[in-house]
Amino acid sequence: MATEEEIIAGCKQEKAAFQEKLFQLYSRRMMAVCTRYTKSRFEAEDIFQEAFVKVFKNINTYHGGSFEGWMRQIFVHTAINHYHKNKKYQEQLDYSTVEEVVPNDDDIISTISAQELLGLINQLPEGYRLVFNLYIVEGFNHREIGDMLQIAEGTSKSQLAKAKSYLKKMLQKHSISEQC
After folding, report:
1. Is 86 strand, coil or helix?
2. Can you give the pLDDT at residue 105?
3. Could you give the CA distance from residue 12 to residue 137 in angstroms, rounded to a whole number?
4. Inter-axis angle of helices 153-179 and 142-149, nearest 10
5. What is the rounded CA–CA span in Å between residue 50 and residue 136?
6. Which keywords appear in this protein's UniProt record, sorted alphabetically (predicted)?
7. CA atoms within 13 Å, Cβ hemisphere of 46
8. Domain 4-89 is of which CATH architecture?
9. Each residue of 21-30: b (16+ CB within 10 Å) or e?
């Protein structure tokens, strides 16, 4: 079994066998990234393919550190670019001021599976879902998110607050339906 370093070196030499190994090693994790940023499997697969092409095309720019982190950045940015290209087809939500609403009911979250939680996150409106994923999952700050999505920093904050509020309501509904 080749090490990650050997696989990367083989990919830098454009050897198909090593490209296949890299694909096998990371495809599941990177597909999970793609599905967090889209509403459909079809869109996620488009982003996935485009991002993997970028990984192979730009692998010579990788010079150490977390390779998975380097790849994840490519996948996230590809998903954001996809969002921008298709933005005219999506409803945009823009709120200048919103109260921060943080769910305090951690017990609700402990009663559902990770898969159910991902399903609920995927039900968020587009803007909410993007900001939620970038802030909560990827760890970007609101200024960075604003730059990526071409929105105001305040809009990023309000989208996150709305996403949390929306998720809290969905979790409460889920909890109620589970008890019936």
Report:
1. helix
2. 44
3. 29
4. 100
5. 24
6. Sigma factor, Transcription, Transcription regulation
7. 14
8. Orthogonal Bundle (1.10)
9. bbeebbeeeb
The CATH number given to 106-179 is 1.10.10.10
Whether residue 174 contacts residue 120, with contact meaning beta carbons closer than 8 Å, is answered with yes
pLDDT for res 86: 76
Round to whole Å and give the CA distance between 149 and 37: 12
pLDDT digits (tens, 9 = 90+) for 140-154: 999 999 988 889 999
- HSE (CB half, 13 Å, CA atoms) of 52? 20
Asked whether the beta carbons of 52 and 72 are under 8 A apart, the reply is no
Give 164's contacts (C-beta < 8 A, 6+ positions apart).
100, 101, 102, 103, 132
pLDDT digit string (tens) for 75-103?
A: 999 999 988 887 655 544 434 333 333 44
Could you give the C-alpha distances from 38 to 35, 49, 97, 126, 129, in angstroms and in order?
A: 5, 14, 26, 8, 9
Mean pLDDT of 133-145: 90
Nearest to 154 by CA among 99, 101, 97: 97
Instruction: Identify the CA nearest to 58 among candidates 44, 46, 80, 75.
Output: 75
Round to the nearest angstrom and report the end-to-end CA distance of the chain: 51
